[in-house]
Amino acid sequence: MTVLPPTAADTQARKADHLRICLDDDVQFRRTTTGLDRYRFTHCCLPELGQEDIDLGTPFLGKTLAAPLLISSMTGGTEQAWQINRRLATAAQHYGLAMGVGSQRVAVENPDLMATFAVRSVAPNILLCANLGAVQLNYGYGLDQCRRVVERLEADVLILHLNPLQEAVQTRGDTNFKGLLGKITHLCEQLPVPVIAKEVGNGISGAMARRLIEAGIAAVDVAGAGGTSWAKVESERAEDPIQRRLGRTFGDWGLPTAECITQVRAIAPELPLIASGGLRTGLDVAKTIALGADIAGLAFPFLKAASDSDAALHSLIDVLIAELTTVLFCTGKATPTALRDDHTLQPIP
Fold this sequence. Notes:
- With about 350 residues, the protein is of the alpha/beta class.
- It contains 13 helices and 12 strands.
- It has a single domain, classed as Aldolase class I (TIM Barrel), CATH 3.20.20.70.
- Its main location: cytoplasm.
């Protein structure tokens, strides 16, 4: 039987399925956690600072964020996605946060859909990240397509997402990952904006980060295990029983977020580093920064809030900032980076 390549309509339908499944079905990791539960902060009963002294401002890839938060890459390509992206971008502009859009492959296949990603008009000042799957470099994509998604989004950086497990489970997934490092090297040399390597929820190890850095990657988003399982997402929409079972078997596969952060930071002390994968609270954000991340990305909480209302989204960001500020105050630290001081975060015995 001949397997036909996916069309733009197929890709658009998959985007709609992803949104529906993430919002309506239970596709979270169950046995594998982020690993952040294994750490706790040392409480400081006399902080010697006022809460008003705390400064969450964080420089990252040439811009200063008002707080070390990234609205992680999620969606695009549908009417619902357009509404969510506009809402997210407006909030990012208001609060001074960074934002990534979902994979823009669908907009390369159908340029009319680029409008569902276009948010610069409502977020003129934010750090904005374009997004394509790295594996597409083996399926006809190259510098021109990468440059196009960056330029049309007016993005500051390009995220290349790495998702071998998702592609293995996905019906008609793109599973030729051979020779990608060389193509990534060429892209990093030629593209006029920095390139971020990002997993999609199964983690980037220290050894793999070293190879990506040697290829020219400017920053890493570890996107570890513990949050949304894209193996489970693809299992829910699988068209055959083998793919469905694969998603269930590998639904908890991956490296916990905390382990990824410590491994990558150990081999690259100065690398711009994003922590994501299962973060749900400002306390989680604080732990990732204490472990070595520069900023922290969240997807599912932002998606749930943005699909509800502007008010729900603003309430979520307010509480994340309040939680992070409370950690700083109760550890006696005036800035997020100060959380990396010795003995501030300790493994639980």
